Amino acid sequence: MDPIRERSQNASASSVLQQGTSRRDFLKTAAIAGAGALLPAGILLAQNGARVQAGRIDVHHHLYPPDFVKAVDFHMNRPWTPQTSIDKMDKAGVATAMLSPVQLLVRDTMSGKDQKTRDLVRISNEYNAKCVQDYPKRFGCFAALPMMDTDGALHEIAYALDTLKADGFGLWTSYLDKWIGSADFWPIYEELNRRNAVVFYHPANNSCCRNIADQSGIINYDIDTTRAIDSMLFTGTPSKYPNVRHIWSHAGGGFAVLAPRIMDDYPKNRADRVPNGVEYEIKKFYWDTAHAGRAATIDALHDIVPVSQILYGSDVPLREYPLTDDFLDQYPRFSEDDWKAINRGNSERLFPRLKA
Q1: Tens digits of per-residue pLDDT, 240-279?
Q2: Of 8, 58, 81, 91, most Cβ neighbours within 10 A?
Q3: Can you name the CATH fold of 57-336?
Q4: Residue closest to 325 by CA, chosen among 94, 95, 137, 97
Q5: Whole-angstrom Cα distance, residue 9 to residue 23?
Q6: pLDDT at 44 (0 to 100)
Q7: Structure pTM?
Q8: Per-domain boundaries in the chain
Q9: What band does 61 get if pLDDT is binned at 50, 70 and 90?
Q10: pLDDT tens-place string over residues 144-190
């Protein structure tokens, strides 16, 4: 950037802050200058005691590849494009979004062991990688895998990492009636472990709990995440494959509140599955903030894991940034250094190519 222009933008930003402009209004104003000049480096915006750093990395962000949408005959009110996300990111102070598949993909491929399943996964992954190729600093790629097809999943791991240069993988908390900790998935985790992979998990809707009467069903997603983490700990998958870095969406759903019970009552006859202890494995996991901005949720998470394991996430474009940000911005227990870590620093450790 031209140094004169940069000094001018810095001065303008400082002026706006001194006049008391709200964080969100300032972000919208700054976005007009473009993604590269969204906010001057080092400026932190304060509101209600919160500290929000410019240039955030959003680890929970979805994409809708047009060929995939067409293949599964999914009707959208408005077609998604990379620019759709970039416009939302610019308004929210997000520099980079890690793109992961939507649940539509798992509904159409979760039980498949055929070529159609492999083709749908490949369509999503190649489009995801193309977004990163076109906008390398704005997007990252979490590739999908056909988890019910072990051979297909192993083949896709190689293609995603070696050819598409994916940043990690976007999996689901359950597939049909199997949660992700099932030993049936261990051959896949063995390869993910060998590759030191990052895996992001989004909740699905397990076949056990669909169409329950007299309920909205929305909590099924948070409960499915909780069950998935419990299954991981119960089977010992994290300690068996310690090189895999796990990111749980929505701050782990309902897990943070239930974690003390799980730690207290973990079966003693399975202690060999977690030789370092349940709490050790929980503190190694990563957790995103999507839908988790309210104090009750963040407090529960903050009490069981260090700040180094919390990552900013949003669930955009399925949801909008204010759904998380409006509450997260007001959370009082994080220091400025904590906010720097959550908004960017912790993700930079997982994805060194994004390091500023």
Answers
A1: 999 999 999 999 999 999 999 999 999 999 999 999 999 9
A2: 58
A3: TIM Barrel (3.20.20)
A4: 94
A5: 16
A6: 40
A7: 0.84
A8: 57-336
A9: very high
A10: 999 999 999 999 999 999 999 999 999 999 888 889 999 999 999 99
Can you read off the two tokens belonging to residue 204?
């699905």
Residues counted in the chain: 356
